[in-house]
Amino acid sequence: MDFKELFTLGGKTALVTGAARGLGREISLGLAQSGASLVLADVVYPQETAELVEQSGMRCLAVQTDISDESQVKDLTKMAVAEYQREDILVNNAGVSQLSYTATEELPVDEWDRIVEINLKGTFLCCKHIGKTMIGRSGGSIVNIASTAGITGVSRAPAYCVSKSGIILLTKSLALEWARYNIRVNSIAPHYLETDLTTGLRDSEKIHAAIVNQIPLRRFGKASEVVGAVLYLSSNASSYTTGTVIPVDGGYLSQ
Predict the structure, then answer these.
(1) Residue of 84, 160, 232, 252 marked catalytic
(2) What is the pLDDT of residues 234-252, one digit of tens each?
(3) Are 118 and 164 in contact (CB under 8 A)?
(4) How far apart (Å, rounded) are the C-alpha atoms in residues 92 and 145?
(5) Is 160 tagged catalytic?
(6) Which residues pair with 114 in a beta bridge?
(7) Which pLDDT tens digit goes with each residue over 93-108?
(8) How far apart are CA 228 and CA 192, in angstroms?
(9) Cα–Cα distance between 22 and 118 in angstroms, integer?
(10) Which of 146, 169, 178, 227 meets the CB 3.0–4.6 Å disulfide criterion with 187?
C-alpha cells in the first residue's frame, strides 16, 4: 500500500452542511485542499466559503438550505447528484446552541424544538437522503459533528445535550445498518471551540476562565483543529473505522 495516498480525496465529492462560516467553512476548505469537490449547504447562502473553495482550484456548488425541512433536503440531494452524479462524503456540521443557559424549568418549548429540529432532525434528514444515494453506489463516508456535551452533559443545556447525544446514537445505529453497503458512519465530539457560537462565553472573563480550567490543554480549540479528524474519517485512512466517536477536546474527556 502507498501510505502517501491514504488521506487524499482526489476524485471524490463531499457535501458539508453549515458551511457558511466557522467550523463548516474550515471543514470545507480542508476537504477541498485534500482534493474533494464540494457541495456547500447552509441556511444562509455560503457565498464566501464558495469563493474560497474555488480559489483553491476545486469545483463547488453552493446551495441555501434549511436542513430541518425535508423537502429542501430532497432538493439539495437532487442538485448534488445532478452536479456530480455521486456523493462520496457527507459532513453533517450544521447546528445551533441554546440562546441562553436558562434554568430547564424555564426553557421555552419552542426553543427546545428549534434546537432538536436543526441539530438532530436535520442530521437525520441529510443522512436519510444522501445515504440513499450512497446505498445506490455501495459506498460512502458520513461524518456527524456531535459534541462532548452529548457524552457528559452540560448544566442548563438539556436540548443541546439531547440533540448531540442523539447524533451519537444515530451514528452508531446507521453504522450497524449500512455497513453491508460499505457506508461508514462516524462522529466527532469537539469540546469548546473558538467559533461564533462561543463568542459570548469567551467575552466573559469569568465564564471563559471556568471553562478553560476544566480543559487539560487550558484553552479553547480552534475550528481548524477539527479538520484533521474529518479528513481521517472521510478518507481511506479510516477504511476499517465505523460507528465510532472521536473526541477533539483538549483532553477534557480523559479526566
Answers:
(1) 160
(2) 999 999 999 999 999 999 9
(3) no
(4) 6
(5) yes
(6) none
(7) 999 988 778 899 999 9
(8) 17
(9) 17
(10) 146
